[in-house]
């Protein structure tokens, strides 16, 4: 499925990144305010390196951008990628609504057939 500029690999990376609770929490935190990787690491009972790996997965999915500021690496949200992900979910919702309407139509035709 291609939505906007997303190809299959982009979609896989986005859903892989969002499939993990820690990564979703990191994303939520950086949506509220950009944070350094060190600041993010203080919120989780795991090593700094593990948090860095989670941030790297989010970065590969283009959901966040990491930039060096002095001695720190600051993570902030990439709104464009989030919008593309929202478009993808909207496309899935449209497919689901189309199928629901088709099922309603089939059921209505069956009811009409039973009454005649």
TrEMBL record:
Q: What positions does the domain HTH arsR-type occupy?
A: 3-103
Supply the Pfam families for this chain: HTH_20
Q: State one molecular function term (GO).
A: DNA-binding transcription factor activity
Name the domain of life. Bacteria
SUPFAM superfamilies listed in its UniProt record: Winged helix' DNA-binding domain
- What InterPro entries has UniProt attached to this entry? ArsR-like_HTH (IPR011991), HTH_ArsR_DNA-bd_dom (IPR001845), WH-like_DNA-bd_sf (IPR036388), WH_DNA-bd_sf (IPR036390)
Q: Which SMART domains match?
A: HTH_ARSR
PROSITE patterns (alphabetical)? HTH_ARSR_2
Name of the protein described by the UniProt record: Transcriptional regulator
